[in-house]
Design goal:
Order of helices and strands: HHHHHHHHHHHHHH
Number of strands: 0
Strand content: under 5%
Radius of gyration: 19 Å
Distance between the termini: 37 Å
Number of helices: 14
Largest sheet: none
Helix content: 55-70%
């Protein structure tokens, strides 16, 4: 992949987010993570061109330099389309159009498609999940989601949000709450989950010693991008878990303002913890594979 591929890749991801007519906050997460990894092209200009209908899939696909870039374009679009749940009819049509424009066959992407559909399933865990203290559960899940940011398999990003939602569901269960997926997603949406930039200023700027620019801003080196992604996701999962614990312990009576204030406090707390467990997150990433991640998503 060449640096000249970056604008087309980001534009394709943005088109994928708009494929169903709306951009869910969860769909921004894989885009933000991708931009942070490659360094930022002129994102605001690309966004304006996408919104104005000036960029088309076929034209963008034709700009890509080779097979690696074309496959990456499809993987990233697939991650975006499945980030807020299994891809719907409009998103599937977009992916088919993109696949054809990229010169990929259905066989070329069949394994990617199966993995994405499985990862985008219901976040509720299987019955009989092993018991553990809530604090330990939250920390373990925060470490796991942080580790997913380091995996070379880019589709691992899809698993982050389902695992975060599954954590909320598990905590609610412990407090006798009978939740469905929509209730869990509503709580996560209230806290801005999926908008990684929200956590960037509060945690990464502190933990990484002051990286210039926002998540969609400055040009970051490869190693720093991986570290910042893991820090952001660790902090978001840690804060979400502790907010959920207080929310359900208090009978779901906390206001949106109170929830957001708690999220900010626990996010900052995660910033003090991250340097101590950074090596553990890297070790965890070294032992994970996608099959294990799939089992975790589905509570096995």
């Amino acid at each position: 992949m060449e640096p000249s591929d970056h604008p087309a890749l980001v534009a394709i991801a943005m088109l994928a987010a708009r494929a169903d007519g709306r951009v869910d906050p969860a769909e921004r997460q894989p885009i933000d993570a991708f931009v942070a990894r490659i360094g930022s092209p002129d994102v605001s200009r690309l966004a304006a061109q996408v919104e104005g209908g000036q960029l088309r899939v076929a034209d963008l696909a034709a700009r890509l330099s080779g097979g690696e870039a074309r496959r990456l374009a499809y993987e990233t679009a697939l991650a975006v389309c499945n980030a807020d749940g299994a891809a719907g009819p409009d998103e599937l049509r977009f992916l088919d159009e993109l696949r054809a424009a990229l010169g990929l066959t259905a066989a070329d992407v069949s394994e990617l498609d199966r993995t994405a559909r499985s990862l985008a399933g219901d976040p509720r865990p299987a019955a009989g999940a092993a018991d553990a203290s809530v604090a330990d559960l939250i920390l373990r899940q925060a470490i796991l989601t942080g580790a997913l940011e380091i995996l070379p398999d880019r589709l691992a990003n899809i698993a982050v949000l389902p695992l975060q939602l599954r954590l909320v569901y598990q905590i609610g269960q412990r407090h006798g709450q009978q939740l469905d997926a929509r209730q869990v997603r509503d709580l996560a949406a209230t806290l801005g989950l999926g908008a990684a930039a929200q956590a960037f200023e509060g945690v990464v700027m502190k933990v990484m010693g002051g990286v210039a620019g926002g998540l969609l801003g400055g040009l970051l080196g490869g190693a720093t991008r991986v570290a910042t992604g893991a820090a952001v996701t660790f902090a978001a999962t840690y804060a979400l878990g502790h907010v959920a614990e207080q929310y359900y312990a208090q009978g779901r009576k906390l206001s949106k303002a109170e929830l957001k204030a708690l999220f900010a406090r626990f996010r900052d707390e995660a910033g003090t913890i991250y340097p101590r467990i950074q090596q553990q997150i890297q070790s965890e990433a070294g032992t994970l594979d996608m099959q294990k991640v799939l089992a975790m998503v589905h509570g096995r």
